[in-house]
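STRUCTURE:
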């Protein structure tokens, strides 16, 4: 294949670069974590049972525990699976863009490992507690990292 004048790599020499290899190892590690949670979530199942409606508002507020997480472990595991799935697909798209465009190597490797670590932390956190504002913040962080990887792939490659 022809050498990319922006990066100095052909696709073949680019994928043989050690930083690119480490980038794809980070992706595969995240993919493996996603597969593990995908498998385990079927063991616990999703809790779809709801309590009978309360007859009065006072009765309803007395029954709801203040600090208890919503849903059983199965439904929280489904949330963790969703986080892993969405982040794995987001990461895959920008890594393919970077690899075929023979873009950045070391910077993308560092960003990918940061992305993986943050994804693992968020997935574990989702199993314990979920909140819309927290989801918004980490979604913004993931989107920013993928934009940075995509930007590097166009700046250094293509």
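SEQUENCE:
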């Amino acid at each position: 294949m022809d050498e990319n004048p922006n990066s100095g790599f052909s696709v073949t020499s680019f994928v043989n670069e050690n930083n690119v290899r480490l980038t794809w190892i980070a992706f595969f590690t995240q993919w493996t974590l996603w597969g593990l949670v995908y498998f385990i979530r079927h063991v616990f199942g999703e809790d779809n049972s709801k309590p009978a409606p309360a007859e009065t508002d006072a009765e309803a507020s007395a029954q709801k525990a203040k600090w208890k997480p919503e849903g059983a472990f199965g439904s929280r595991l489904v949330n963790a699976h969703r986080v892993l799935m969405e982040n794995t697909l987001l990461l895959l798209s920008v890594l393919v863009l970077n690899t075929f465009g023979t873009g950045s190597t070391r910077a993308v490797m560092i960003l990918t490992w940061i992305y993986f670590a943050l994804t693992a932390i968020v997935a574990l956190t989702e199993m314990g507690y979920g909140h819309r504002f927290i989801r918004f913040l980490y979604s913004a962080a993931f989107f920013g990292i993928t934009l940075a990887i995509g930007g590097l792939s166009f700046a250094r490659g293509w």
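REMARK: Helices lie at 11-15, 18-44, 57-63, 73-100, 106-128, 132-156.
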